[in-house]
Please model this.
Amino acid sequence: MKIGLDQTTKNKAMSYILVTILSFSVFITSSEKMEGPSFIKKLIVESIGPLQGGTATIKRQFWEFVDNYLNIVDTRKENEFLRYKISELSQENFSLKSLSKENDRLKSLLAFGDQIKYQKILSQVIGWNSTAEFKVLRIDKGSNQGIVPRSAVITSEGLVGYTYVVYPNYTDILTILDPNNRVDVVVERTRTHAILEGFSDQFCRMKFVPRTEALVVGDLVISAGFGKLYPKGIKTGTVEVAEHDSVGITQKIKVRPAVDFEKLEEVVILIRPALPDESTAAANASANANSNSSASTINNMTEKTKL
Amino acid sequence: MMNSRHSSPLMCMMKTVLICVFFDLFFMIFFPLISLKWVAVSVTQVAIIFLSFTVGFAWLPWGILTLQLFHSLFSLEGWALGTLIGVIICVVMSRLKAMIQLTGPLSIIMTTYFLQFAWCLMAGILTSLRNHDWKFFQLFVNQGLTYGLVTAALSPLLFFIFRNIWLVPTNPFDHES
Model:
């Protein structure tokens, strides 16, 4: 019995020693370098592979099922949210398009003004005061922003008018459609000088054009630059109709303004650099304009005509 | 010591091997299904720990070798390191098992986790010594600390299965006494 026990213990010890030596020697001699898989391992992996692939497919299909069907409860809410979002984004898109167009207009406006050596103030048209007598625009800038009376107002398209009444934060502009506004102009092609004044809501007319001047429809009319109010060379309009009076020495010329007043949104006010000897005259002119616009424009016209 | 009254030790070992293979495959396939792609549950280690506690026959090292050989078929790690550490664990546990009472799930979890960690420590040291690079030690320690928790959590279930295979009572020392 004792020998048997010893034999068992001996066998047990031998087993431990053998397995330990075997495994240790294999472990020590093997490196971390991955050797090619054995045939059995290849067989197992090739057998397990489709199973794992199937599992992955099941997993994918399961989550697709969850996404497509179980989450449909949230789809209605999400749909409503997305519809609201689309509406919001459409509105935002519309606003951005409007801003883009406005940006283009302002860019061209400012680019137009580059050739003119005046201080330029950009402003938005916020109101209209159109009566039979006056064709006035109101803009959102005033004396606080540096606007002074009798400053030319233009757009990239052409001449708008001049600042008529200046408030601290707003300004009324007397447009060239106003009959009281008279502009010294010249026909670009023939260099014919004339006075342009408002005639209706859409047209102006040129006065004092001699019959001998052969103006044709489409002739470009620009500012003459006399009178220190409007800079020279600003596009004012084009000849729409040229009629010879049956009697007299002049002809009636109907001019379409270069500016589309129906679509006017932004304007540029050209602030002329103040000269020392002009300050008093400008103040007087402003006072006159505020007190009596008709008299002021007549005086202005007279002055310009003299020039 | 061995209590397989109705099955031979060889049959019990074969069943253990099959159970290990089954769980290796199961976890290999099931864990990715629940997005646990890098969690490794070493059922073979639990089986060796179980055997070191309950089975004391002479050819146990060969049984460990067999388990590791089959396990190596389903993993990139070879059989040698696992066999070596398994044998060391068995030798150590043959001296210490009298002091450890595996009477409940918590004690099984704690013991398994501790032995798993010791296993990883030894594997880390041996691998680092062999490769002259101690980064392996850190990797093994991290594995023991993290994945060892999952394995330890499953160890009561695995112990229950192995006890039914080897027909071991809940407390083997009760039967022994």
Summary: The radius of gyration of chain B is 16 Å. Confidence is low (pLDDT under 50) at residues 172-177 of chain B. The interface with chain A takes residues 25, 28-30, 32-33, 57-62, 64-65, 73-74, 76, 78-81, 83-84, 87-88, 90-91, 126, 130-131 of chain B (CB under 8 Å).
